[in-house]
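Most newcomers find our protein records easier to grasp once they have seen one. Read left to right, the backbone structure tokens trace the chain's path through space. Once this layout is familiar, the rest of the handout is easier to follow. The record below serves as our worked example for the rest of this section:


***
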Amino acid sequence: KRLRELPAEIGKLPQLTSLDLSFNILTGLPSEIGKLTQLTSLDLSFNQLTGLPVEMGKLTQLTSLNLYYNDLRRLPSEIGNLAPLTSLDLSSNPNLRLAIPRSYLNLSLYDFDINETQVCVPDEPAFQSWIASIAFYFPSGISCSLATPTPSWATPTKSWVKATPTPSWATPTK
């Protein structure tokens, strides 16, 4: 398996239900992947993918998506459109740095692996409840917060503006 590029003609196979493209050297996918509307299983592990097309969100029958051991740097929020998805493996993508998008709360995952990534789950109750509902969750160990605290060096300890009395000439007369 030394496939460098997935041909756009893949879109001409809309009845395809399973696709294993693991152990290739793919760096991207054509937008036509979104035409595989009957796809239930997609294995893209052990490639060199850096991102996925937004059209992945059209794979509305997908139940399993394996993306481990790639070079992912971004993921489309449209993954959240994949309601039947029960297994999502993003592990071993050390350059994947993101907070889980709110759209992913639509997923009813059974298995979710973000180990060896820099993916974090926001500290909001909705995200924490969602994570708690996943039977097999393998975290990255990185936490994140939607609110970024002000660093201590940027918080002034004294007023930078001194109170200056109003000069008499500036005081209004009656």
Residues 149 and 155 are 10 Å apart (CA to CA). Helices lie at 125-132. The two ends are 91 Å apart (CA to CA). Residues 125-132 form the longest helix (8 residues).
